């Protein structure tokens, strides 16, 4: 799917994704999506993209298979944005780096199961216009939990705007067999790398 719309008053210029966690989001509430949210999310996305009807089943699959990977940004019960990740296991990461990964659809064999550690986080899609972009701060905070804090992010932006946001959050191009792949190395991993090199 890999769409992206993200903007706000401060434009999030050149922010480290991990450091967004220290800021509070006062403008939206954020929740992990449940299967009952799929229709609302589908309708929200439809305002930005020309969707086919079968996309709702894709959204349901992503929520079902990825229970901690789809965040809804809301205000007064109205969906204002979302941020969706695929939590990849070691096979998913290998497929991503070797060019054998289709990021448009969640493949169960590549996703972590309950209780399994993730090897990578793949940014599937997000749309967060205006003040809804502040919801990304919550996502950053959620991903500071012990089970995610040292798991690197990967993204493959397909629009100029998506690329700009990806770069602003600290992603850099990565050599792989997947064209246009970017990686965000978590701060804790950079710190460990620096310590080992010293």
What does this entry look like structurally?
By secondary structure, the chain is α+β, with helices and mostly antiparallel strands. It has a single domain (4-197), classed as Aminopeptidase (3-Layer(aba) Sandwich), CATH 3.40.630. The chain is built from six helices and eight strands; from the N terminus they run E-E-H-H-E-E-H-E-H-E-H-E-E-H. Strands 1, 2, 3, 4, 5, 6, 7 and 8 form an eight-stranded mixed sheet that branches. The longest helix has 11 residues, at 55-65. The N and C termini lie far apart (41 Å). Mean pLDDT is 83; it is low at 3-13.
CATH domain class: Alpha Beta
Structural class: alpha+beta
Fraction of residues in helix: 25-40%
Following the backbone from N to C, one meets helices and strands in this order, namely EEHHEEHEHEHEEH
The share of residues in extended strands comes to 15-25%
Architecture per CATH nomenclature, i.e. the level-2 architecture: 3-Layer(aba) Sandwich
| Global shape | globular
Distance between the termini: 41 Å
Mind summarizing the main beta sheet? Answer: 8 strands, mixed
Summed up, the domain count is: 1
In DSSP terms (H or I, runs of 4 or more residues), the helix count works out at 6
Mean pLDDT: 83
Question: CATH superfamily name?
Answer: Gcn5-related N-acetyltransferase (GNAT)
Low-confidence stretches: 3-13
